[in-house]
Amino acid sequence: MTQDKPVSAMAMMFVVVGNMLGAGILALPVNLCAAGLLPSIAATIVMWLLMTYTALIYSEQKSLTTNEHADLPTFFKEELGSIGKWVTIVANMILLYGILVAYLAGISSIIMSLQSSVSQPVVMTLYFLVVTGMTAFGMMMMKKCTPYMVTAMWITFGMLVFMVVPDVSSENLAKFDWTYVPAGLPVLLMAFHFHNIIPSICRTLNHDRKKIRTAIIGGTTIGMVMNLTWLLVVLGALPLSSPDGIDLITAFGKNQPATIPLEMLLKTPAFTYVALAFALIAMSTAFMANGTALMSFMRDLTVTYAGTKNKTLVWCLSFIPPLLVALIYPDIFLVAINLVGGVGECIIFGILPGFIVWKYSKEGSFRKMTGIILIICFSAIFLIEVGQELGLLHISPDVEYWTHHTH
Description:
Elements: H1 9-20, H2 23-32, H3 37-59, H4 62-65, H5 72-112, H6 120-135, H7 138-164, H8 170-174, H9 181-191, H10 198-204, H11 209-237, H12 248-253, H13 259-266, H14 269-306, H15 311-328, H16 333-360, H17 366-389, H18 399-405
């Protein structure tokens, strides 16, 4: 009887990158466009540090990573009581449902920008059937296929950057306004999201702390470099506003991924199809991971509250609601990402890990102080997003203003 071959930290690094680079990277330049390049770079580096730290915090929680049936609500019930459990349940549903809605809306928008013969509901439904079918294979398929998919993602990403670089203008990169940075923070959170798979990474690497740290820090660093590169070329190639509507503010107003205005700018079939391939690979890889996490989460809920493990019920509860929302609101791409990052991500992968560090660190220690910093930083992002959604704050760029007053 042969033993399973040990999985390398490099393989899990690929899994981290594959989970990170989904809808977030396509939305990042659009949401941060009014802030400009320098503020966007600074915000990206800070978010990389914060999200990498919270990922490492989760990887240290043995009660979460050693038990194959452990889930976040149960973990936080043990740590923070029943309030922690229910806050986690609600936040996780917003997070996972919202991510799948964003992927469905984003992919269908990109495909619809290329053709008009097939309706958007049909396009979305066909993609949904394919990607949920792939998700049925779960972590087994992710381990085997993710390195190849991430390699293909890097190749297509490199081709996109190569094609856009000639259109980068120093004039576009010179404009910046720090006051618009908060508008992009929820999307930045989404761009560094992979935390749902940390328990699986820890178990796959046999709880080898060195390998786990290498996989997490290496994966997030690669993701950060790709996010910064993408910000540079997109903010440099596309103006904030222009008379012909091929600009970032118009894309923001229409809830579009960054590849759509780039396609209109370059007008080359090569870019169009490479951009489609990149988006399909990036979003499908992330859809599989988050879909797997959502099914596991729903399975826990149905067992706990309905006393059943019925696979059909779990599948329907996991995938039908996001499909219906995306079909009813097909232009919800950026809105969904902002809600995911500003509410779900903030709570589960920002504020709650901060409480864990604060609770278990020595009084007066530097580590305890970092827990307080995490709580303050992520609570601020949460309040900004809730304020914007309720109309109490308006930090996002105003489409009418930018269209008529900036040139």
